Amino acid sequence: MESAEDVQYVVVHGYRRAFRIAGSGPALLLLHGLACDSSTWSEVMPGLAEHFTVIAPDLLGHGESDKPNADYSLGGYANGMRDLLTVLGIEKVTVIGHSFGGGVAMQFAYQFPDRTERVVLVSTGGLGKEVSPLIRLLTVPGSSMAIAAATALPWRPLVSGGLRSLARLPLSATRDLGEVARIYESLADPAQRTAVQRVTSHVLDWRGQFVTMTDRSYLARLMPVLVIWGRDDMVIPAAHADLAPTEISDVHVLADSGHFPHKDHPDRFIQIVTEFIAARGPATYHRGKWRTLLRRGDQFELESVPEQPLAAAPAIR
Asked: 135 vs 86, 101, 188, 199, 263, CA distance in Å?
């Protein structure tokens, strides 16, 4: 079995994609958040790999993947994940996304329901407008020069060291500052900084998130959804968990946890995910149900749709 620590590479569409893969069994696709990389899953990947094949990529523009002048939209990322899985010979996955990666996970499930068995959203974006002011600042004109100055070498070690020292304080407000220090250091790379700002421009502005799943949340009725959040999240409010389609979702808000519940409580995270997958069978794509749900929105009963796939609908003129 490959180690979760080993980074592998594959070229897709001319760009190098870095990823970690470990374990065997049903496939899990782990998608990290903005300005992070696949190492964010290091505490949970070995435990999950005892039961599943776990694939954790560095999204394009992040980590050890290439950082080209390319498509950094949610749809572009979803396409990239489909193509990576295809190259790896993996047909279907339970997709797990953290923060911005949760938005990619939802987009992947929306674009490729036939390849998605379940969705797990971890402190996810895309459920509401509110987001940390620091992230909103990335969209302000001139912010790139400001970030370049703020991450310059003379004071970069002092700032990152100070953030890590504050993270050791037993305070909920400082809990995530160790991860913030890693993100701060990554933004010193001009290519990563440009990629991150391109990402943010697709989903939010200085007022907050403008791309959410709320208008399409009824589609989750066709797929098992798990939501995990940290109660002390200072980046995206834990109250956004209430905006998930709870009538068909499992929702866990963990005490003594911030924006990275998979790092704050890795054993509990593994347990929740493993039990969810054991209890909720994989979604089976049914074209007739999908079509009817799209046509009628949330105003119909799934049981009223026949189980046999419908014949192709006549062309709409």
From this structure: 33, 15, 16, 11, 21
